[in-house]
Amino acid sequence: MKTIHLSTEDGKNARVPLLRGRRLTPTTMKVTALGEEVVTKTVHRGNAHVPPEVLTTQALIEGDPEIDLANIGRILSDSSRAYRRPGGVTLEGNFQVVVTTYTANGDVKDRSVHTPRQANINETAPVRVGRRVPLAELFQRFVFHNQFYLGHEDGLQHDFLLDVARGLEAAGEAAMLGAGPKGTQPLVLTNGGTPTRAFLMGETAGDKYRLLVLLTRQELKVP
Predict the structure, then answer these.
(1) Model confidence pLDDT, tens digit, residues 71-97
(2) 62-76, 98-112, 186-200, 203-217 — which is least confidently predicted?
(3) Can you give the residue range of the structural domain that contains 214?
């Protein structure tokens, strides 16, 4: 569970839980001819030094590469990602991740080395509830890729968040969330995470509330 240090326009602030929504159980699933559920497994392919293009039936007949018979086909339960150059057989390390930014026409605008960032949602400087955007405009301007919601652990947090939700609902608006001393920086939810813009949207029903944190990295603009 993550914690976000949230501050409203009137200077009130509190540290509250930032939670993911519950995932819904799929209503359909793939099954075999015998009615057994189809699941995805990671399988050892025999030899890490044999490129995948070699592991075809004809290539095995013609090339006769050495295969690790003790491991091939073994189901892996714990694995990590490794990298190699196209056509290479050795693993690569000590490389840099390059971030490429494109224009609306698909041209390369900027290339820079990715710098890991530290999470900034639970710092001394709180995440501020900032500029308001009408809901109709919000969903026409931005593409959202993820969402979280705010929760409470005691009565004081409940009353604080209920007031925030009521204010947003009454105005028919969402509020941009900003981190940093001035509340203008994008949010970084986890160490090493990607900066993302966030908006807070609220709904109420009596003394119940719903506060959604909508995450976006894409704004729709006319080219």
Answers:
(1) 888 888 887 888 888 877 788 888 888
(2) 62-76
(3) 2-24+117-219
Cβ distance 22 to 144 under 8 Å? no
**CATH, residue 163:** 2.40.290.10
- What gap in Å lies between CA 2 and CA 18, rounded to an integer? 5
CB 73 within 8 A of CB 103: no
Q: Which residues contact 39 (CB under 8 A, 6 or more apart)?
A: none
Q: Quick check: is 96 in a domain? A: no
Closest residue by Cα to residue 45 from 85, 66, 74: 74
Mean pLDDT across the chain, nearest whole number?
Answer: 87
As to burial, measured by CB atoms within 10 angstroms (0-12 exposed, 13-18 middle, 19+ buried), residue 131 is middle
Half-sphere exposure of 100 (CA within 13 A, CB side): 4
State the CB neighbour count (10 A cutoff) for residue 75.
Answer: 8
Question: Does residue 75 form part of some domain?
Answer: no
List C-alpha distances in Å: 44 to 52, 78, 79, 163.
12, 11, 10, 54
Spell out where the chain has E strands. Answer: 2-7, 13-20, 42-43, 75-76, 83-84, 91-92, 98-102, 108-113, 127-134, 142-150, 173-178, 197-205, 208-219
